[in-house]
Amino acid sequence: MYKSERISVIIADTAFIIRKGLRTLVQENSAFEYITEVADSESLHVALKQHHPNVLIVDHCCDDCFSLNVIREIKKEYPDINILVISHEKTAEEIKKIIGIGIKNYLLKDCDEQEITDAITCCAKGVKYFCGQIIDVLLEKEISVKEHCATGGITERESEIIKQFVSGKRSKEIAALLHISPFTVNTHKKNIYKKLGITNNYELAQYAIKTGLLK
Fold it and tell me: How many domains does the structure of the chain reveal?
């Protein structure tokens, strides 16, 4: 149960610009209540003794500050606080380490405003939330060098997105179909255009026809 009708938030991040951005997002949302922000683990422990937020947004960045051990200790000492981890880690191995200590809410630092807002809300309710990029990393299948070369550097996921775009679907429709975010779909599309050296959907359709993606 919340202390107030709004979701109270503490921000823990070593980077000033990240703290400022998160603070602004929280303060400008009427559903959230900004409490304070800290830049190191010692200050975080002090803040948590003085306050009891609904959500702690904590940066997992390095071993000597907000490390996995620090986050694990906080979970043990303050079991009622919902923790939202925000990180730059993009490898499946590192992501699994964070999830492995019981973190149910995880974002990457380049997520958009809507994903951050949704994550805070879900975290406060005890609902799992992983941004689209995290889900993509965990679900993406690695392909062999032979397969990679056979498609001109286009991955299986990218091939599927090409087929969906060429069939006339929009980013939101593709996102819903593949269970990823529209942001991730558009990122894939940009990468596809760059790999193929094209600039529009007509050229994308031509590629799909020539390579047999459309049958």
Answer: 2
How is the beta sheet containing 7-12 ordered, strand by strand? 32-38, 7-12, 55-60, 82-87, 105-108, 129-130
- Tell me if 1 is assigned to some domain: no
Q: Do residues 38 and 108 share a domain? A: yes
Give the span between the Cα atoms of 126 and 129, in whole angstroms.
9
CB neighbours of 118 closer than 8 A, spacing ≥ 6?
A: 129
Is the overall model pTM greater than 0.85, yes or no? Answer: no
Claim to verify: residue 170 and residue 97 sit in the same structural domain = no
pLDDT bracket for residue 111 (50, 70, 90): confident
Spatial neighbors of 113 by CB under 8 A, at least 6 apart, are 25
Contact 172, 180 (CB under 8 A): no
Element (H, E) at 58: strand 55-60
Note whether 139 and 95 are within 8 A (CB): no
Is there a contact between 75 and 29 (Cβ–Cβ < 8 Å)? no
Q: Alpha-carbon distance 198 to 195, whole Å?
A: 8
* Mean pLDDT of the region 161-174: 90
Which tens digits make up the pLDDT trace of 2-32? Answer: 445 899 999 999 889 999 999 999 999 999 9
Q: Is 72 in the same domain as 95?
A: yes
| Between 111 and 142, the higher pLDDT residue | 111
Contacts of 161-164 spanning 24+ positions with Cβ under 8 A: 161/185, 161/188, 161/189, 161/192, 162/192, 162/204, 162/207, 162/208, 162/213, 163/208, 163/213, 163/214
